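Re: the pair you flagged

First of the two:
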Amino acid sequence: MNDAHLHLIVNHFPIVGLFIGTLVLIAGLLLKKTEVKLTAFGIYIFSAIASAMANKTGEEAEEILEEIAGISHSLIHTHEEYAETFLVLAMILGALSLIGFIAEVKKLKFANFLTVLILLFAIAAGVSATYVGTSGGEIRHTEIRDDAAVVEHESDDD
């Protein structure tokens, strides 16, 4: 397994974790269940850690991709820029979630306000995550690019 392979394994965790955490947090708010909100905060903290791992492996994967013919350096650069923004947002979300976790456990007055703030921040980070995921996929998956060429195939019946 090389660094590019490791990056492909790790990079899905922060994005998927973010979306699962958001669904769990919404459920926790609607059900007014502290345990469910704490679970969401834990998922966000995990996603922040996974973001750091994806960022680290991404730097190493870039070195491998730059040696492959036909790989667009501009697509790699775009993905890297989106990933850096997402990393910052994920780290802030992880830190807010840690504070939210403590506030919920200690039943602090501002816990509900903080939980709503975390949800809004998670949604913003989710928008960033879609750009990271799409731009990363575009590096090797030409079929998802806006400039994908449409090729007609002849039918076997001809």
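Second of the two:
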Amino acid sequence: MVTLLAHYTSSVGIRGIVEGGSLWASHVAFLNDASEFRYAFDVSRDIIERITILNQVWQPKHPELAELITSETTHLQRGGLPDVFVTSLSTLSEDLSQWRGYTHPGDGYTIQFDAEALEHHVASLGWRLVPVVYGPSADMAVAYTAVDAFTRLDNGTYATSREAFDAFTRDLAVLAPTLKDHAFERESEWRLISPLGVDPSQVKWRSGPSFLVPYVEVPLPSPDSGVVLGFGVGPGPNGDLASASLLKYVHQMGYHVGVGVPGIPYRPW
């Protein structure tokens, strides 16, 4: 288990987290790249052909299930994905690519969490805190899920291929938020992931760049719980002032932790 996880955000985001006492988790269908969640389903369509044990052992034995996985695991359409909500964090608390990708020039902040304490807290709420799996390892996770479906059909746990396939797609929906293409591997991402089927009354809405985004709040424990280890400030024209004001602000709000100064000599202004 890593010891520290950082959430990159803006000054508005930091105030929302601190004053609202919660993180915001967005619906997987409305992330910047909605194809992230579909990655597992895309992989599953050709997993029979790619994995020897599936192609040579299980496909001849249970051709109907193999055909269902190959032909019926289709793209989930935007807006039709299961109600799963995620918040992204990283093991990297001072990373230029994430300052560039997830914050605006001169308006970047991090809130840094004790990973073990955060995991324990969110588990009590029914959420998961897990590392994202990338590339070939992500593909193998899909393969193991398929092998499990075939094995359970073979031993009689599932009565029909359709029942096994339905269970496979449910398992894939749980797995999918943890998988990403290898191109994103340098982000070193972990995710807070909601249980399936969030209570609709918990869903709120925020304005995105071009559409409304559904989200739910993940309540944080009190500032003195030890879950929050500190805060950080990204590159900007007034780094010292930004750090000083953030320190004064979080102390006033009950977070008696440190604030890091900008550590990357990058000028985004």
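Residues 135-154 form the longest helix (20 residues).

-B.
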